[in-house]
Predict the structure.
Amino acid sequence: MSDPGPSPSPEQSAEAGTLAARLALKQRAGGIVVPVVTVLFAFLMSGIIIAATQHSVRTALVVFKEIFQGAGLNWVFHPTTSLLDISAYNLSQTLLQTTPLILTGLAVAFAFRCGMFNIGGNGQYLVGLIVANWLGVDLAGLNPFLHILLCISAGTLAASAYAGIAGILKATVGAHEVISTIMLNWIAYWTASWLIGAGGPLQVSNNPTNPVSNQVSSGARLPDFWGVQGFQGLHVGLFVALAAVVVFWALLNRTTLGYEVRAVGFNPDAAAYGGISVKKNYFRAMAISGAFAGLAGTLDMLGGAQNYQIGQLDIPFIQVGFIGIAVALLGRNTAIGTLLGAVLFGALSYGSFHGLGSSAVIDPTLANNLTYIIQGLIVLFIGADVLILYVWNSRKKLRRPPGKTARRAEAAAS
Amino acid sequence: MADDLVLEMRDIRKEFPGVVANDKVSFDVRRGEVHALLGENGAGKSTLMNILYGLYRPDGGEIRLNGKPVTFSSAREAIQAGIGMVHQHFMLIPVMTVAENIVLGTEPRKGILLDERVADRRVADMAKTFRFEVDPEALVQDISVGQQQRVEIMKVLYRNADILILDEPTAVLTPQEASDLFEILRTLRREGLSIIFISHKLNEVLEIADRITVLRRGKTIETVPHAGATEASLARAMVGRDVLLRVDKGAPEIGDVLLEVEDLHVLDDRGIEKVRGVSFEVRAGEIVGIAGVDGNGQTELIDALTGLQKIESGSVNIAGHRLSHTSAREALDAGIGHIPEDRQRRGLVLEFTIAENIALHDYAKPPDARWGWLFPARMVGRARRLIEDFDVRGGGPSTRAGALSGGNQQKLVAAREVDRDPKVLIAAQPTRGLDVGAIEYLHRRLVSERDEGRAILLVSLELEEILSLSDRIFVLFEGTFVGEHTGDVSEEQIGLEMLGGKKEAAA
């Protein structure tokens, strides 16, 4: 644009209307600065926690170095494709963790863009996981390409329909999606447990007392593109997730469907006035959101896991749906932001688990919990980003008038 | 003379990126006067007041309070110095009583509890002194908008303000409430308070102000005493050229019936019948005005005509198509254009760009889209043309609609609705909150759209607007038409009918 595109002048912001509208405006301003500050704050706080509990500032710094190396991020200093190199191997594992987080993040972000909060990522992920396991086992012998395609599409569609229930409930009787998706999470969890319980339809055939599912047939496994014999490798699901990022962006910004979803998300009254069916979009956005989460489940099943069992199915254990919320919030519900958020959380969870678990820097129990502490702090600060913005803005107000960042955020938001 | 001045702002300068909001603005206020600050949207009125109120720091200039130079770095400091501001949007807590709202933040306490008796008494005393008719024990959610505004004013007085800033106080009031407000302002003036009255309504300024300062594009144009100022002279100072305050329009060339409404009944969201048997028609080439006090069924009537609300009984025909009231889409496709009464809540998606807002009705049709795929470049092209045609200022196709001033937002809505070439154009409060220049533009546009052969239905709370634009006028009172007029009718006659012929019990 050659237009100067003036940032909102004070005269105009006085017209911004409701408090919520002004808040929304504020939240968008600040662009990339606020997420970055949020993360730095969270690291700083967790550093203080470590330093306080270990009585050593040095330990805190070592811990962060271990997490960094544990996630394989030091790979960038000496890149190699050989997985015999420890940093390369760690990186491949970090990316493996990142893959489902990208998708569950996109799921949450898509619903957010339509003004809805999808907490049901876990349940939808499970539905995708179960369906992929069922077809991956039952249709053994099919052409591998067809088999994989079938498992992925069926799992994704099933999860989409599953999330769609929450959408329909919201559109027809006004049931709040937060409540209904949480309930759907538990339905999915107990259904999955029953399916592999003693005598359950998906339970492993050769040992009737073991509550675990069959392994998907070798033909339905996603090929590794970066891995070595005997170790879990990085499968091609990563590329599917990256493609989903592009699809997410194009769907929102380049289709009439995305236009409707965004219009409803920003202002349902104006959308209805424009001739858009708000209810239809609640359903549709929820179904699409569920599809992203379900896709994550299918990739995890066909890629890394290949079977599932009760222990690993514990809702407290499967966190991808919930971490997806943090990922989306940190990424401000944009395609690229969600991708970056997923990489951060993937690195954090693998890096702190692996990097700290195997070293003797600090007490292993604290090491394990540290991941959750940092994650929790990030979520906390995301929730407080209005506060961070306030601090940021008042600092800015003293030095110079607002401008560049607001404009950049504006460009990014459009 | 100088000891008379309670406030002097000299050579105030404030710059925002790309905009000089205040360029050496000077402004002063005497004890016991109402000083109006007049200017179009974006002229720099709010910036100047926000500087005075401590919300912005000026880049240059000097503020003197009772002769002493001051700098405020927060609203708190301004309040302590005796400056109080009543914002356009009220900041009251609906579930608390009037007294509680007023004392909030400076509560009289009994231990750690609010001493309600003391609070009520102090507020009642104040209400008596200044002749506010407000019950201190009433909940804010139960009192009228006019009374809520009085509560806001009392809040400021309770904090011992002696300079009162009112930001477009009449924008939310009915004519009766506005004249009550002026009565209160006169009382306050007699008590020695100084009042800064921000407005862009000429008649009000002339009614209440002792002196008038006109701002235009961030500069002080003039400060004139009330005597000798006229609407025309003020409008010229505000806009920078002669303004036609009276709409020029020829005789209508009436064509076919394009909008036909028969015995329409509409319920509101709570199931209360708000439109109770309304029948009328609007023909091509005429403007039909609907006058009435706010809340007499206008909103429900418009929503029913545009398919946004289901009807209870009756029928709506648009150019021969009978609405089934299944969706707004149906009405849009039948040929309705709708400038909604609340452009920010309904007319625009403020977070969308101008180009996206232009496409709000037709985003799914070629050329904007094909097979569900959007072509943003085409939207931008159309937006660029309409920005030019309708003189929308303040940004290009990729500017967020929320960044535009109110007048330009309204032009944007009007541009979109007219460009769809509707058979029937419904304009609800098309000039609410706009300044003289934008009002003049929109009025001329409505007349020229009429002359293009559209049927235009104008719904407005501004009686003057209805009278100057309409070829025929209906008066809506409690959901039914109580009067129909063609040609000349006096303002008094319609005003009387708007109140149902009888005086409404004062709220």
Remarks:
- The CA atoms of residues 123 and 186 of chain A lie 7 Å apart.
- Confidence is low (pLDDT under 50) at residues 1-27, 399-414 of chain A.
- Chain A has one domain: 26-413.
- The longest helix of chain A spans residues 144-173.
